[in-house]
Amino acid sequence: MVTPVRVVIALCLVAPFVAMLWVGSYAKTDPVFIGIPFFYWYQMLWVLISTALTVVAYQLWQRDQRARSASKGGASR
Question: Of 9, 25, 66, 74, whose CB has the highest number of CB atoms within 10 Å?
Fold first, then answer.
């Protein structure tokens, strides 16, 4: 069943892939950040963003599973 929460979870998990596969958006050297060309620091930033989005997706998934379990009368998982 597709719910708004599951759509948000999917977006959280797909966003990093789209960002990294769209190479044309970051295949440049400027702007430089603390001496590091954009190409490199953009990818490293996405490591942190991906981690945060995965945590958000996991928490939303857990909340969704608890809600589904409670609505089914406390059935296990």
Answer: 9
